[in-house]
Amino acid sequence: MVPSSLVAALDLASVSWRPVLHRGLEAMGTFDPGYLQSLSVEGFLPTEGRLFAAFAQPLHAVRYVLVGEGPYPREQSATGVCFMDGAVDALWSSSGLSKQVNRATSLRNFMKMLMVADGLLTPESTTGDAVAEVAQRALAPNAQFIQTLPELQNNLHANGFLLLNAALVFRPHVPPVKDAKAWQPFLAVVLEALANRAGQAPPTLVLWGKIAALLQAMPVTTQFPQAVAEHPYNLSFIKNKDMQQLFGPMRLLAEKNFQ
Question: Fewest CB within 10 A of the end CB: N or C in the chain?
Answer without folding.
Answer: N
